[in-house]
Design a protein that fits this description.
Length: 244
Amino acid sequence: MKTDDSHIYVRSAAIMTTADLLAAGRSQEQIRTLVKRGELLRLGIGIYATSELAESVSRLPFGELLLSAAAAVRALGPAAVVSHRTAAQIHGLDLLGRPSSLVSVTRPPGVGSRSGRPGVLLHSAELPAEHIGARMAVPVTTVGRTVVDLARMSPFREGVVVADSALNQKLTSKKELGGVLTGCRRWRGVRKAAEVVEFADGLSESPLESIARVVFRDCGLPPPELQVEIGADEFIGRVDFLWE
């Protein structure tokens, strides 16, 4: 069942730093007391959320991840944007491997320190406005930018899995991905990302199908037709792959 989260927003005022609380007149002792009472939830070193926000967001399928992501960008400043594998999880895209315990965040070059925070994997890259979206008011790279970022930095089959997933769910298009590639044309790994985008196919319905297509290619087989119905006069079934 899909959760209706249209009314839930991770408002910046509900994510606070120790400095924010001290500036509002709270003492260190009062902050500790609020945490013990459950009125504040400690999200990380010096980062807190109101209990009301935490309860609302925790009901979402990706609620805990979203809170961690909101805390990371709050700590790193207004230029920080959730990206890469964390953005893919928030967008609901398929990924290979276990989810990382680190929150991936991108910040433009020259903004802040190049070192991250505990629990944060910090990337440095340009962030054009058209590459930035939001989820519950948390800044997140768009699906298109997320796909290209992962395709640039991951093995080919991992890039194909996430690209196929995004296309299959109609969360992006080949045209949008091409536009992102154009904006990133001088970046490291963009040639590999372009190969992933060209190979990707929204008719692939699972990571295993995506991986199988890559294996077929690596073994020198011609590309199969995907999701083909069998039976000219009477429907027999549908196959994932068909070579005539």
